[in-house]
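Risk register update: the risk that structure generation would not scale has been downgraded. Supporting records follow, first protein first.
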Amino acid sequence: MYEAEAAINETVYRHVLALDGTIAAEHGIGSLKKHWLPQVRSAEEMALMRAVKQHLDPQNLFNPAKSLFNFPTNQTNKNPAAPAH
């Protein structure tokens, strides 16, 4: 990662989220931005994504090291403050 990349991304994403924007595109959210996911998706959306993942991959065989769902279920969304790293 470039030296200033994390700081630049955080600044940009905070502004995007403050304007009710999103950080993902048609290809989804990558592992570098996964800590932002609870900030842009509701608890219900996160629960639905977990349920779909569980249904399609009940044994967690599909790339388990890259799981985007290693978040507590009680996180809230739409908060421009970045989660702790």
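Supporting record for the second protein:
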Amino acid sequence: MSISRKDKLPPPAARDETALRIKATQEALGVSPRFIYEQTGISQKSWSNYVNGVSRPNLEDGIRFCERFGIPMDWIYRGDKSRLPHEIAVKIDAHIARLKMEDQSGSGK
């Protein structure tokens, strides 16, 4: 029995939560997608897929992003804020709240 690529993807909710954390982290850091590409070598297409919930970052890209910007991988992949620098965690929380409100108002909820 073979496993298709679709069967290997994390469930949509997990991808959406990861995308939300990535978007909020980028905004909290105050950096553009272009800056991320230049600093990490992550391709534009891959980064777009990550922030739009199409896919979760592969391990190599996750390491590049987290090491370059001082973000714990547990935050990106698991949502564990315990090792985030306090100042960044506060900014991330604010961005997540705003993004969720925008999502709710945009979807008519």
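Helices lie at 5-8, 12-29, 33-40, 44-51, 59-69, 73-78, 86-106. On this basis the risk owner (M.S.) recommends closing the item.
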